[in-house]
Here is the input.
Amino acid sequence: MLFAVAVSALSLASVASAQMVVKVGAEATDNGGVFQFIPPTMTASNGTTITFQFTGAPGNHSVTQSTFADPCNPAPGGFDSGWVFIPTSPALSSTPEWNLTITDDSKPIWFFCKQLIPSPHCAAGMVGAINAPTTGNTFQQFQTTAKSFKGTPNQTVNGLVGIGASASAGIGPIPSGAIAYGQATASGGGPAATNTAPAGSGTGGAPATTTSGAASSVVANSFVAMLAAALGIVLV
Here is the structure.
């Protein structure tokens, strides 16, 4: 009897502490290219914490909940990490992470990267799924629908608490060189697509707003800096 209780307690502890890691963004030399979550799909039970590590360099990505029917737009009431810009160099002293805990494993959870630069990452196939069915509405079908998306993904910033999963805090740590922006709050209510846009070059750059000339300068400077870094040119 005591043995059974002990085993049961250990099993509960294991469930409570279960953790998975997903890399957000990749390197150009990686199989599958830059625009991907690794792994893109997983099975996770209630209480499991999925740690999204923003590792792609250069990179500028988000983890944003969507729906199967509309892969490249934020789901109403869905979770949202906000964006993180990761420079090519220097190497960061630590990796920005975002922890998402599964609260309802009875339904699939769909997500995507809403970055727009140089073109929508979602339409390039940068989507993911948790507890996706193996038949019918599969991850493969979800990704195929995303790749056929035309238009501009909405840039509304949702909250930390989503449908079937939630986060208790924003992305962290944010080491020197990285930039976090459009960060979600517990209640969401962030700026709409007509007010903000991620900016940069390649896989994304520093934040900017579409309503000011200063922001346009930030976009241009990010592009020049990224291009110079790629070509080995030192700007003075």
About this structure: Residues 5-16, 190-202, 206-236 have pLDDT under 50 and may be disordered.
